[in-house]
Amino acid sequence: MVVFVSVIALCKPSLQRIILMGDLTRSWSFLHAREVRHFRVPAMAMVSSPRTVTPLRPAISSVTTAMPRCRECRLRQFGFFDSMTDAELEFMQRFKNAHGRSWSGEYLLEQGSQKPRLLTLYSGWAIKTITLPSGESHLIKVLLPGDLIGLESVLSGAVRHAVQAVTDVTYCSLDCRQIDDMLNIPSLARRLTVMLLAEQQRIAERLAVVGACNARRNFAHFTLDLHQRLRERQMARDEGFRVPLTSVQLADALGLTTVHLNRVLRSFRQDGILTLENHVLTIQDMSALREVAALSGPSSESCPLL
């Protein structure tokens, strides 16, 4: 109890209210994602306790924030976000039922859940992972603003993968009950089909690269693909971009160990092609990077978004 009171005393008032209201799951997520950055518990407070406390798994959060209207959505300015008619925008506004926020580390979707959610990532980074029955987990996609989350769970009725926030994120929550209504609008149904096909093609290409190419080509292909997606969203410059992924998450996305990943990064740095330091990836020689990836130029295909 002494330790608990000591921690509360060091927290911000917003977190104190959450803890005292008894929402311990959200308290841990809030503390882990926000407060730990701002204080350290004094050594005297970390006394041994007769009871071992196991940290809770980051919770699924759905903090509601002010809901921007679809017509004023900042994502619509991007070239790959096709224009919509007034009728389509009106439907999308009805389709959207909330605007949520989750902190870094929290789950937007949890694998195995029987409660489907349909979201569009509005800001921040997230990762899509799948855990096999044997326990092995693999990062299958990095999610960026505009990406649709949870469609498979809505169509199948079960969540077959997890989605976790890498940074603090905001998202548009869509009404799962209206999915059939959306499919009855030919233009939106076609857009959704193109989105699914594009994602299937992207995943198939990544699987081929991971399975058939060496680690350098694998990393170069992943970097250029991510760079293009970020450029489309005005989240990267020609010379590079910020990568909030941990080394473990990045290695997982590439199917490598962290030791092997570090060797690859060292070889790129020694060749003067790129560096990755303090979560900032700097491309020093774009043409050489494309040559390693066996790509003659950037892909001209962009996936449409909802």
Automatic annotation (TrEMBL):
InterPro entries the UniProt entry points to: cNMP-bd_dom, cNMP-bd_dom_sf, HTH_CRP, RmlC-like_jellyroll, WH-like_DNA-bd_sf, WH_DNA-bd_sf
Keyword Transcription regulation: yes
Matches recorded under SMART domains: HTH_CRP
Top-rank taxon, per record: Bacteria
Occurrences of domain HTH crp-type (ranges): 213-287
GO annotation, biological process: regulation of DNA-templated transcription
Molecular function via GO: DNA binding
Signal sequence residues: none
Keywords of this entry: DNA-binding, Transcription, Transcription regulation
Protein name: Crp/Fnr family transcriptional regulator
Species assigned in the record: Blastochloris sulfoviridis
Lineage summary: Bacteria, Pseudomonadati, Pseudomonadota, Alphaproteobacteria, Hyphomicrobiales
